[in-house]
Design goal:
Low-confidence stretches: none
Structural class: mainly beta
Order of helices and strands: EEEEEEEE
Mean pLDDT: 80
Helix content: under 10%
Distance between the termini: 72 Å
Number of strands: 8
Number of helices: 0
Number of domains: 2
Largest sheet: 5 strands, antiparallel
Length: 116
């Protein structure tokens, strides 16, 4: 069986039956017209997820470095989450004193630290 289609018609050709006869059926192919129009403004979607900060302070390291020193000056220990390429990573976080954190990587990195 074969179907041949052009801009004017579609032809269905059925293989010969036992007596050698071939059946050919032709149908008109309608012209398809796409019409698009703008509809009304949809409803506002839900808010997106919370950003990196999570209520903390963000330190951004813009120059690649293996060691990041953060002077947060809070006078207390802080918790910190380290992000590289927007992904949370596990690396060495050292609380040097109540006002300073040091983040250590095996290779130079850029990214963010969120601390609170």
């Amino acid at each position: 069986m074969a179907i041949v289609i052009n801009e004017h018609c579609a032809v269905l050709v059925v293989p010969p039956v036992d007596n050698g006869a071939v059946t050919v059926t032709s149908v008109s192919v309608p012209t398809v017209v796409a019409v698009t129009t703008s509809g009304p403004q949809g409803i506002t979607g839900p808010s997106g997820p919370q950003g990196l900060t999570g209520g903390g302070t963000v330190y951004t390291q813009t120059t690649p470095a293996s060691t990041w020193v953060i002077n947060h000056n809070t006078g207390r220990s802080v918790s910190a989450t380290v992000y590289v390429d927007g992904q949370s990573v596990i690396t060495d976080v050292i609380a040097n004193n109540p006002n300073t954190l040091t983040i250590v990587f095996a290779t130079p990195q850029i990214g963010e630290v969120v601390y609170s």
